[in-house]
Amino acid sequence: MASRLLWASSAASYLRISVSTARPFSSVVKGFKYTDSHEWVKVDGNAATVGITDHAQNHLGDVVYVELPEAGVATKQGAGFGAVESVKATSDVNSPVSGTVLEVNEELKDSPGLVNSSPYEKGWIIKVSINDAGELNKLKESDEYAKFCEEEDAKH
User: Fold this and answer.
1) Is residue 120 part of a domain?
2) Distance separating alpha carbons of residues 82 and 93, to the nearest angstrom
3) How many domains does the chain have?
4) Residue 138 forms beta bridges with which residues?
5) CATH number for the domain including 145?
6) Is residue 115 domain-resident?
7) Span 145-156, pLDDT tens digits
8) Which of 66, 88, 96, 130 is the right S-S partner for 61, CB 3.0 to 4.6 Å?
9) What are the two backbone dihedrals, phi and then psi, of residue 59, each rounded to the nearest 5 degrees?
10) Residue 40: pLDDT band by 50, 70, 90 thresholds?
11) 95: domain range?
12) What is the pLDDT of residues 9-34, one digit of tens each?
């Protein structure tokens, strides 16, 4: 086994191939808006779909439980509406916009790992009506958020 690893390392060095096991930078979806607390929002008319970013799920590790609000509950921009529990930690999930919860992702009750495997598609957490579209101007665009994450990671 050790000789195979040595051979692979030597071959990689000779071929100038990187064998780093570090995970590449987390993905960011253009057209979405982002918060400093690592939630994303996808706007569709007067409604928004909300979840946690790939960056957030990557730092949390394997998600084992998602605390969901009830439909009809009011949300306030920046205020918590639920939580995500992982093998490493529990993190509050804050609403990027003020509004009313229209729908929750019931699939997360049985499959919380969707937050890890598909944070921007199947792992969404809530859909909310938007009370004030002007609040979207306080959120980051994808390029701003990507830079924010890179700077945050450089500090650690």
Assistant:
1) yes
2) 5
3) 1
4) none
5) 2.40.50.100
6) yes
7) 999 999 988 887
8) 88
9) -75, -30
10) very high
11) 33-154
12) 343 344 333 333 334 456 899 999 99
